[in-house]
Sequence to fold (856 residues):
Amino acid sequence: MHSRARVLTLLAGLLALGLVPLVAALTQQPFYLDLFRRIMIFAIAAVSLDLILGFGGMVSFGHAAYLGIGAYAVAIPAFYGIHSGLVQWPLAMVLSGLAALAIGAVSLRTSGVSFIMITLAFAQMLYYLGISINAWGADDGMRLARRSQFGGVLDLTNGYVFYYVVFGLLLTLLWLGNRLVHARFGVVIRAARSNEPRMRAIGFSTFRYKLAAFGIAGAIGGLAGALLTNQTEYLTPSYMHWTRSGEIMVMVILGGIGTLYGPVLGAVAFLLLEDVLSAWTVHWQVVLGPLLVLVVLYARRGLWGLLPEARRADG
Amino acid sequence: MPTAEPLLAVRGLIKRFGGLVATDGIDLDVAEGETLAVIGPNGAGKTTLIGQLSGDLPPDAGSIRFAGVDVTALPAPARSQRGLARSFQITSIFREFTALDNVALAVQAHAGHSFRFWTPAFTERALREPARATLERVGLGARADVVAGTLAHGEQRQLEIAMALATRPRLLLLDEPVAGMGADESQRMVRLLRELRGRHTIVLVEHDLDVWALADRIAVMVYGRVIACGTPEAIRANAEVRRAYLGEEVPA
Amino acid sequence: MLFLMAAGLTLVFGIMNLVNLAHGSLYMVGAYLATAAVTRTGSFLAAVVFALLGTLAIGMLMEVLALRTLYERDHLDQVLATFGLILFFNEAVAIVWGRAALFTAVPSALSGHIQVLPGIRYPAYRAVIIVVGLLVALLLYVVVTRTRLGMLIRAGASNRTMVGALGVNIRLLYTVVFGFGAALAALGGLMAGPIYTVLPGMGEEILIQVFVVIVIGGIGSIRGALAGAVVVGMVDTLGRAFLRPMLSTVIGPSAADNAGPALASMLIYILMAAVLYFRPQGLFPALRG
Fold:
């Protein structure tokens, strides 16, 4: 169970996120709305990656591909006049989930470095595919015709409404994710990470569970992609570029892998840092690079790990 | 050799690693309810044999029949589902989970599928009760809520057995169950094994002499072949065995 | 060209068990240094020397500063840390030389064509690349299998602590091997400069292809790297050449114009997927122990 420090930080953080629109309205700075909405969207992506990376030990370097597919699943129908979010968003999740299953079916036959590189390669493949399709903007991308419509019930063109939709989705994801991680499925995934040969010896066909996890993570990534393209009102294959995958991974690590809530912290930290640093210099990545190296070398447990742990029964 | 259909029948099992032949045409029969000890000097191929029996190593040639079915091509999880359980020579447990969780996992593997996403697994009574019972049986009842990685070595080996037992196996493959244990712990393990005799079919690989005494029959492996197989008394009297063990202790 | 990179990477990975994403960055640095040297001195030879030595130095510095602690860590940490290095190098290069692509010309001595077979002319420069690749392959083979250094490397791969206990300075050994790998990357980079564009991020483009090569060929094996590079190169070239005409007969020329290049670049990935499916350890897996 989590320590008080962690629970309090989590609740405080979520509360703060919930209050951002209020602050934005009071200070007449819609910019905050935009920024934190973007942060939450990436938090969703990061949490979905954490499911397979942190809990499952599957180092997928191609997660951005699923965001891309989700984005395309919204923008392409919009291009052809289909604006209903009720069609686009489930489509985004289904398509990216299927892609994840396909990629996973091949990649999960390997492990370790091969797995990392294979997932990377597949993601790049999709990226190249995206670049070369001229009809949909090729490598310049294209504007989103209109934000997803929800039949008049939810108006995403209203920044506040959109904000709370994303917020709601993030909360739901964290809640469902928490249940999943402790349910039979989650336990299998975590144990497979801990000791896969043992799992097989006691009778678990681990492949199917890992594949399912992979698919689920991909589907949620697709949802994040659908949100992203709504946020930016733009579609570009660069959403799928492997450096994007790297960034999401950084968020997970920075926040604390395998903690479910850590990646939210990671997304906040990373994007805020990006915001601050890039105002300073356009070459901010020069600082980010070594910073990342240092974090990996010396602060492995991430931000969440810095908070004191609950005491456990010890031998 | 037993006359009823053996629970485990191995024929001509061969496994090569590059130029080395680890198991060289093994034939074995294990009857239901019997305890077979596989002994032999280091490098004789015992662990390779266990690996092929459990499904972790695909043999290059030969066949394995378990409970009347040819399982040679079946992967390890499928064999476990059919009632073949194994424990590892080098302790292989889930270190971050508690002892109870470890065993509950083994129970879970055989309690329907695990595509369940909602209910916390370790609160399921159908998993916890059998797990706790199994831990009691091996003598770890009091240590159920201890993180497995912090258990003493001997306790971890007991946990290994518990996990194998929790899968309700017909056949137990035990790879050096008392490996690395001190005298007290070994005695405890031997007592446990004695209790398991007869209720489960056991194939165990072991160097320890006290364990040999538990066996109904002993198979002696040298350089990948079974050079003798029979009752402990017959083995003791066997000249070839004495030769193979020259320089090592021979059961008195 | 792919071979050079693949060999360097597989050497570092197979022997030191280190995933180095920044290998592509070394390639890029090599290209930039070479280009800088050429524009200043006008001499290709000087550029070669400068690029090789410079990258070697940078590579060894990288090893000493950042990579030492990574040998013990698991692959995820290595991936992330070297990813950080990539970010750093890409920006650093952009700071010094700007983001626009640099142009560097093929050295005049090699810019002609040569007759490979009667009637078939091949660009001399590319021929030289192939020759260099083969020479390096030969050199590597000789060093790894015949020399004492090679033996030490292989021994260190199997059992690092043991070799250290025997009195060999394993740290120095690893630094040397890494330097080797860096030099190979630099060689690839400086030769690539004239044909491909020199810009920040060029390392990653080729890095992914290199990993595909290694996966197809088999990780840790130099022979595999060679085979993989050849296979990938061929599939890529043939694919690009033939796919579009083939497709246009089926789905019409304008659609083929769209889909052709896309499918062509996807081909090697599909190939990799197929290899993984049927033979996960690659075509020529390294024999260990």
